[in-house]
């Protein structure tokens, strides 16, 4: 008699690939041999990477999983930012509608209790310390669509059930920077991030549980405020310890801060400036073991972005750097009422193992990027520039990305990977001219991925495929010649 | 040897099946075997296919004869995801519908895996999966001739795992 039990595992897995999750579950329950054969693939598919919302029912499922036989499978945990929102004024309702409204409203109130009483940190800590192989914690504002079964996305556990029972959807934090936004604002993102940090800090300080080495923040819409990176004094020890073990830190949706506060800017003749990146810089300083850093500056303007990157490059004005060195660690970590303004940045960080550096969605001059790469040239092997705009104050129609790549040759980088995607360029600050650079490659006009061992020699090929485009502008006739000094970082 | 010449295959139960060389070449395993064998010494001798029953081999060869003009599909490269089918061509639909016996269906699937006939393997996998879809655990056990040897505790654990994986949760 032919049994599916005699079928090789790779064939069995191809059969299961056609099944819905319920059917797959039924097949697992047929007998011990099939269950044993399918267990590895099943747990890899459903439990190596799981998403939860920071809501009690969802985190409770995580806790339960962490105390089950599936706990060793979970290596990647994602916390989604969705949450219940206050319902509008009640109108006339049927009995069933009223019951559904009450369910949702109860969840809204419960969520508020959950996040304001510290229960969220307690439960997340409890879960993490029981996940021995957890490596990555992520924070997201979207559901991944790469679920191959069931024609659905990877949702946060429990959230589809709530939506089905109440007929109300969960919401994302308000992206508005208005003073009084409706619903939970960007501060909720800061809260979720701090909850994650506190949980991994708790496990780090008690020496129990896994060593989380990656934090991945992926945001499609939400704004990640600079104050999200402020570490409260009383959590400093644990969080700093956890950050010191991070090998990868991917930050998305970075946003200049609200409320604004001022810092001392020696480089601008002691004129106070808004301290964009103040907390981010102090946060990054603690992650000294980083091998991979991604900074996506969606909600930063050019000069604050450049200040942060130059600080990373240890290439600020020497006077500014001197001021920073007198910024004591305690004072540097928090803004306190004081009669003097704090320094903008702490001393430049040292990332002795930094191999991969991704910068995205920012506008900068080429000199800033060159300074950054020069600082890490001994270890840097992988550079990614995504949706970046190269800027020059000179009115030009030159291909700025061609100039930048050629300038990179002088840095003598030993790259093995160089990725460029959706490149933009802008010239002349007084009357902005915008353009883009595409690639003469039928497979992908917007992206170029180079992998190899002879980067300097490959630059000619990369630039050879570039096609520079400039939008029409009023002063098209003028095209100043550019020299290397003309796009310096000086304001 | 010309592609339209006949060869004899011998199944595990010593049943001999005649096939055109062109059809046999749909099976990568047999095609390779024929390439390395000394034609003079093996001419006229049955080729042993000892891992496949006569019943299954007969159906496999029937499929290969129909598809003998097809381009032989390359064996899948490791790491490359298998193509997901949504339906079968009409002749193949009828071929599998006429099999009737689910044990034979699984035997054909295993035989096409052993003989390296990627397209037949892909089709039989699809047909088996279609047969399993929508069935309860008990119905699957009946379909697959499997006895439940799980303890109630083990079954409960699997139910819990499954519940956490369900898309509607």
What does it look like?
The complex is a heterodimer of chains A (about 500) and B (about 170). Chain A folds into 3 domains: about 1-45, no CATH class; about 50-90 and about 95-305 and about 315-335, no CATH class; about 355-490, no CATH class. Chain A is about 35% helix and about 15% strand. Chain A is built from 16 helices and 19 strands. Chain A has a 10-stranded mixed sheet. Chain A has a 5-stranded mixed sheet with strand order 12-14-16-17-19. Chain A has a two-stranded parallel ribbon with strand order 5-7. In chain A, strand 16 (about 425) and strand 17 form a beta hairpin. Residues about 320-335 of chain A have low confidence and may be disordered. Chain B has about 170 residues and is mainly α. Chain B is about 55% helix and about 10% strand. In chain B, strand 1 (about 5-10) and strand 2 (about 15-20) form a beta hairpin. The longest helix of chain B has 15 residues, at about 120-130. Chain B starts with 5 loop residues before the first strand and ends with a helix. The model of chain B has no long low-confidence stretch (mean pLDDT about 90). At the A-B interface, helix 1, helix 2, helix 3, helix 4 and helix 7 of A face helix 6, helix 7, helix 8 and helix 9 of B.
- What is the N-to-C order of secondary-structure elements of chain B (H for helix, E for strand)? EEHHHEHHHHHH
**What fold name stands as the CATH topology of chain B?**
Potassium Channel Kv1.1, Chain A
Task: Indicate the mean pLDDT of chain A.
Answer: 88
Work out the helicity level of chain B.
Answer: 40-55%
The termini of chain B sit apart by: 61 Å
Low-confidence stretches of chain A: 321-334
> For the report, how would you describe the main beta sheet of chain B?
3 strands, mixed
- Quaternary structure classification: heterodimer
Q: How would you write the strand order of the largest sheet of chain A?
A: 1-2-3-4-6-10-11-13-15-18
DSSP strand content of chain A: 15-25%
**CATH homologous superfamily of chain B?**
Potassium Channel Kv1.1, Chain A
Strand order of the largest sheet of chain B: 2-1-3
What profile does the largest beta sheet of chain A have?
10 strands, mixed
Strand content of chain B: 5-15%
Helix content of chain A: 25-40%
Give average pLDDT of chain B, whole number: 88
